[in-house]
Amino acid sequence: MPTRSVCVRGIFATAVFLAAYPVGALTISGVTIAVAGTNSPDDTVTSHTNNTSATSILAAGGIVADTVAANVSAKTRYASNLWADAGLFDPAENVITTNSYDMSLSVNAGTGITYDIDIETVFQGILVREDEDGGCFFCTQQSAAGVSAVQVEINSVVSVPHATSAQLLALGYYDASVAFSELGNSSLTGLTGTTNLSFNVIWTSNADNTEGDEAAVLLGLDEAGSPIGGVTGGEYGNLTGPGSPGDARDMNLDGHFIEVIATVTAIPEPSTALLLATGLAIIAVRRRRG
């Protein structure tokens, strides 16, 4: 009976340990993204201008087991376009819009799990200048487009995980389009339990033009068939000028992206007592069989 008692106790202790040991130790959940209150409202009705924006979740997270180096990720995208296209005898226009969105998620780990979080960002798009007045002799034929530096707040603390510099396609007299791309990352290490992340991202876009020329900031939206009759160029697949990506560019890769990757870095070790209980249970079973 003593042998059986030791066996039962050892097996019981082992079972308790296994039941308490975390499975699916690391999760990302509750991913949300939406345009912020400071984002310029969509305008598809003002003559010769058009600005739109949209958000999407590309990866919603999930769960991974308690294995060192296992990781889970979430990814979101904000896209927008801005056009400004002054008519031939219209006054000059300099349309400035605010691009802003909020994104949030939760990372949760089982008891004793340690993890790191990597935050990776991509900001890319096209600045377009297009001559639409047919080389009017009396026209200045100038236009410009640009974006400001991006400000990223993480949990209400101003942080720029990538060194974003302002981009500008300068005034000129010919068709042109310039693609830009900026990458960056930051990390949080040695985390346990639950980490809630809240992002606010903001920058401005501007399109400045005169006398029949167009300027545009294209950040991933397809504007073909837009109701704005005055805007006739500067669409994806209709880009001209030196170095233009034209039809070859994938608009789904443009916009502002945030990817959060959580990785297990350490898992809890069994306690000495539970190891002893397991060992005793194995010895007792072997003796009983012998």
Globally, the shape reads elongated
Low-confidence stretches: 13-22
Percent of residues in helices: 10-25%
Name the beta content range.
Answer: over 45%
Number of helices: 2
**Secondary structure tally: strands:** 14
How many domains in all? Answer: 2
- Give the integer mean of the pLDDT values: 79
Order of helices and strands: HEEEEEEEEEEEEEEH
Distance between the termini: 15 Å
User: Largest sheet at a glance?
Assistant: 8 strands, antiparallel
The computed structural class is mainly beta
Structure description:
- The chain is mainly beta.
- It has two domains: 1-21 and 268-290; 29-265, no CATH class.
- The protein is 13% helix and 48% strand.
- It contains two helices and 14 strands.
- It has helices at residues 2-20, 272-289, and strands spanning 26-35, 49-60, 62-64, 71-85, 93-109, 114-130, 143-147, 151-154, 157-158, 167-169, 176-191, 194-209, 214-219, 255-266.
- A hairpin with a 2-residue loop joins strand 8 (151-154) and strand 9 (157-158).
- Helix 1 packs across helix 2 (272-289).
Report a brief summary of the structure.
About 15% of the residues lie in helices and about 50% in strands.
Which short descriptors sum up this protein?
290 residues, mainly beta, 2 domains, 8-stranded antiparallel sheet, 6-stranded antiparallel sheet, 14 strands
